Amino acid sequence: MPEDTALEGFAPSAGARAPRARLRSDAPTLDLNGTWRFRLLPEAPEISGDTGAPGGFEAPDFDDTTWNDLPVPAHWQLHGYGTPAYTNVHYPFPLDPPFVPDENPTGEYRRAFDLPGDRPAGGDAVLRFDGVDSFFRLWVNGTEVGFATGSRLVSEFDVGHLLRPGRNVLAVRVHQWSAASYLEDQDMWWLSGIFRDVTLLDRPAEGIEDVAVVADHDHTTGIGTLRVDVEGFPGARLHLPELGLTDLEPGVVHRVGPVEPWSAETPRLYDAEVVAPGERVRLRVGFRTIAIEDGELKVNGRPLLLRGVNRHEWHPDHGRAVSLEAMREDVLLMKRHNVNAVRTSHYPPHPDFLDLCDELGLWVVDECDLETHGFEVVDWRGNPSDDPRWRDAYLDRIRRTVARDRNHPSIILWSLGNESGRGENLRAMADWVHEHEPSRPVHYEGEWDSSHVDVYSRMYPEHDEVETIGKGEEPVTEDPEVDDHRRSLPFVLCEYAHAMGAGPGGLEEYQRLFERHPRLVGGFVWEWIDHGIRRREPDGTEWFAYGGDFGEVLHDGNFVADGLLLPDRTPSPGLTALARTFAPVRFAVDPGAATVAVENLLTFADTAHLAFDWEVAEEGEVFGGGTLSVPVLAPGERVEVPLPEVPRGEGAEVWLTVTAHLAADLPWAAMGHEVAWGQAPLADRGPASEQAPAYPLLDGGGLRLGPGLFDVRTGRLLSVGGLDVGEPRAGVWRAPTDNDEGLHGMGLAPFWRAFGLDRLTERRVAVNVADDALEVRTRLAPAARDLGLDVAYRWTADAHTLWLDLTVTATGEWICPLPRLGLDLTLPGDLGAVEWFGYGPGEAYRDVAQGVRVGRFTDTVDGLQTPYLRPQENGRRLGTRWLELWDEAGSGLRIQGDPEFEFTARRWSDHELDAARHPHELVAGDRVHLRVDTDHHGMGSASCGPGVLPVHGLLAGTHRLRAGFTRLRG
Question: pLDDT of 901-959, one tens digit each?
């Protein structure tokens, strides 16, 4: 029997229909999702010819009773057939295009179904597969229909002539690897199978084959123009009753209106129908015009500022088989966190997602199903992008992307794909789009000279470079004509601010650049969600797997966990920070002038949908509030309004907070949902009252100073008011974050480990008892190095509070910043309740602090943790004025800052946190590990991008901390 040569061929398909839009039709459909029969073969079998041999799995009477059930849509690896594998860049098979290994897992599917009894005999029908990874061949009732590639693209086949009354059988053979796999190296789990919907569509006589909509808007007149091209019945007519339009002729440009334009802020859709004798097709039309003018990307005459995210399709249980409910949750979370744009990295999404973007309002960059990143490993030798044998496959993919999605008003850019190098096949794709669908510009990041695209795009440039580009001062290219073209283009960061683990830092600084330079269109944070796969231990413990957890020989570890959402769609602290950066309203409170400036940062919508409030709180306790009288602001308008007169307080901090929230329910959030806030102090904390000092006293074998008991010989603090505090000492180590490790950036953790900052030893220099203080000097230093830290502890006290003045001075040659600097202590494990006055409620670091505000907050030690997929530094609260930890009886410890400190509290040490690969491996001990810090190095984005900006670095030098410790008694 011959081998399936098409599997390793360049042809994208055979027997498939021409691509077209996904239409909402009243023609009958049959949903073929559900339970299919399935078996997995270790290799691709030999094929039996054009129609299949009698008795082959494709035969209607084949006995599949020994097979298993498998749901469709699904990936077979997530149902126990083989295992998932994750790589970012590397292909998991040899680079030998177009060939793939003989070990090519192949799934065979069968589905029997009955045709409805009222179906016309011999009628036309189309079988539609919305997504199959990576190559599939189709039989209907034993007859071969064809094959298709393009895993995240629609494939349709004419099957009406093969259907018969009563029972029918579909047989589908799906190969994990094929020549097409070389075009689908997209930084995600390699997962196979029929993972999107399968549908049988009746095609009525005198029906509608395809519809293409172009709906423009003239922002100077308010008039819309509408052209609807229809394939199928030649006498079809267009109806748009809301605008009083009936019986319009397709294929003609119609002036309509005035109309309300569509935008992501005001997603106005008009219901329309195309009607033929045999079929009615429903459309949702949004009028908007996209243009590039004066180096800016404009919609309806106004320049866009994209506050975007990259979105892979993902569900922790189902992989890329994402339900409509999960898609809606994604869009709602984006809207509620002030995201206004999404790049569908790196393939067209399920079409239902685009319907949601149309309905709820998101700008979309629709990306073609294309990436050949693994050829970068061999300096792009053999890259299909410049190999003419692959030209048809490249053009096929962009045609199918555009044909399916062109009617969505949310789409503003076509993207040719991602990280596929350079080559004439990419140019051919761009030329095809420019000729056949010129209503949107073309994007592609991989060619920085941008000669055949319409926007200049980059990934992860540093802030300084972004500013240079914003000014139009980037380095010239070799070709002056090409250079002139690129400088005329708007600039978009298709990826920036890598959201892997704790972080990303630098968001605020990027956003200010976007706002300052009109050429900068904004960008898309990488990425939306961690691709963790849910696992369950026998005892019920749940955790999320990443690369390497399935025994992959070649993998990229937790680089698949780089999202703003944890895998279960819990927002990370990074998303909270991003929501503040992307807020559509900005406040600037000026207590001295008793005013607040309010600025509408929206492009199309005024603020009529928002209400504004204020409240004042003394040391976190709210004592006043009300409505802030703000007029309706037009897009871009700014106004100063007077602050209410409120008491300023004496001797305690008073803070004013102003908020903007929804004045009524909207489709994406309920009334009262907060969209923006600002805050400013009205009164500072007064000086602490002077207490009579306590004096050092010998107490048995120890030294007592106020509530503190010390070891006489070492000067170590043993307890505060009888509470064991674990001999506190200065510390600099933190469990490195993904950004500290810097897998694809300039990481600092390798330097920290090389310098031994995770293994400092201490040498006691002096212990001095003064009249009113205990002074201890030590030196912290790593083995094999001549640098170190000179540490001075000065302890003073009154009757109730023990005060520490800590001074740490770096000595020697330091070529890297410090991870952190503070005091490490431990407390009894039953001190599990936490209350503090400072910034919160969530985690924050110095360059990821915009999402937290000053207030009084309560939590538990367990609740302070952020369960990043790979354990790392997390949970820090900054700007803390005071902190209390107590047990069920109310007994515990209070720490007072002078003026402030930062803290983390955990049930494991930093070294235990550093050693763990997954959160469930962390075992709670019998102590609470508390850090009272003066500062931390920032987070940055160096897991794949720029590191920490200098202003957010923690340089070695001299650092001080002052804090007081008081025993709480229940």
Answer: 999 999 999 999 999 999 999 999 999 999 999 999 999 999 999 999 999 999 999 99
**Concatenated DSSP letters of 796-815:** EEBSSEEEEEEEEEEES---
Rounded CA-CA distance 358/362 in Å is 7
DSSP 331-378: HHHHHHTT--EEE-TTS---HHHHHHHHHHT-EEEEE-S-EEGGGGGG
pLDDT-based confidence at residue 47 (cuts at 50, 70, 90): low
User: Which of 203, 222, 240 lies at the terminal end of a domain, its last residue?
Assistant: 203
Q: Which of 281, 244, 287, 240 lies closest to 268 in space, CA to CA?
A: 287
Q: Which domain holds residue 92?
A: 5-203
Per-residue pLDDT, 50:
43
Question: Is the domain of 612 the same as that of 735?
Answer: no
Which tokens go with 633? 């602001």
* DSSP-derived 3-state class of residue 741: helix
653 is catalytic: no
Of 58, 209, 279, 419, which is the active-site residue?
A: 419
> Mean pLDDT across the chain, nearest whole number?
95
Q: Is 8 a catalytic residue?
A: no
Instruction: Give helix 391-405 / helix 351-360 axis angle, nearest 10°.
Output: 40
User: Using CA atoms, how far apart are residues 510 and 534, in angstroms rounded to an integer?
Assistant: 34
User: Are 789 and 779 in contact, with CB atoms under 8 Å apart?
Assistant: yes
CATH of the domain at 638: 2.60.40.10
Phi, psi of 711 (to 5 degrees): -75, 125
In our burial notation (b when 16+ CB lie closer than 10 A, e otherwise), range 474-483 reads beebeeeebb
**pLDDT level of residue 46 (50, 70, 90 thresholds):** confident
Lowest mean pLDDT among 76-90, 113-127, 393-407, 793-807: 113-127
Give me the CATH number covering residue 197. 2.60.120.260
Cα separation, 74 vs 80, in Å, equals 12
CA 890 – CA 966 distance, rounded (Å):
13
383: its two tokens: 């890259």
Shared domain for 679 and 701, answered yes or no, is no
- 889-915: b (≥16 Cβ within 10 Å) or e: eebbbbbbbbebbbbbbbbbbbebbbe
Given 156, 184, 495, 843, which residue is catalytic?
495
- pLDDT of the residue at 652: 86
H runs (alpha helix) in 636-786: 738-741, 749-754
Q: What is the pLDDT of residue 646?
A: 76
774-799 per-position pLDDT tens digit: 999 999 999 999 999 999 999 999 99
In a domain, 14, yes or no: yes
Among the candidates 183, 203, 223, a domain finishes at: 203
